[in-house]
Amino acid sequence: MEMHTEDDDGINMHEEMRRAFSLLSGKWKLEIMWLLNQRVYRFGELRKAIPGITQHMLTAQLRELEADGLVSRTVYAEVPPRVDYEITAKARGLGPTMEALSAWWNEYGKTVPVRTTTRGRQATSK
User: Fold this and answer.
1) Which of these, 95, 36, 106, lies nearest to 71 by C-alpha position?
2) Kindly report the CA angle at 21 between 17 and 23, in degrees rounded to 5?
3) pTM, entire model
4) By C-alpha distance, which of 10, 12, 30 is closest to 21?
5) What does 17-47 look like in DSSP terms, one character per residue?
6) Which class for 70: exposed (0-12), middle (13-18), buried (19 or more C-beta within 10 A)?
7) Residue, of 18 and 2, whose pLDDT is higher
8) Could you give all domains of the chain from N- to C-terminal order, each with its CATH number?
9) Reduced to 3 DSSP states, what percent helix, strand and coil does the chain have, rounded to the nearest 5?
10) Is 38 left (phi over 0), alpha (psi -120 to 50) or beta?
11) 44-101 pLDDT tens trace
């Protein structure tokens, strides 16, 4: 079976979509992007907002998103240091995708079985 993924310009859309998927395919990237789409977050706020993520994993995922141009990091010369994270204009281009996912979830989310998460550290209730 042959895959027909090239467009009229000879661009292999299968490969291009694989590149696009890889930008958001980290364990926590979509959740991070979802939160940052709402507002600017400080590192500690993000960590508290994502149950189960470790400090190391959040740092790694944020670094990858920053390297890919989807998140910007602003460091303020204060004591203690303050670091803000926000999505970039490039990432805001994913807005329609986020809206489509929200609409899909509103329609079908109740039919998706609830799974207990076993990834990351256990969330603590405070």
Assistant:
1) 36
2) 120
3) 0.78
4) 30
5) HHHHHHHT-SSSHHHHHHHHHHS-EEHHHHH
6) buried
7) 18
8) 22-96 (1.10.10.10)
9) 50, 15, 40
10) alpha
11) 999 999 999 999 999 999 999 999 999 999 999 989 889 999 999 999 999 898 899 8
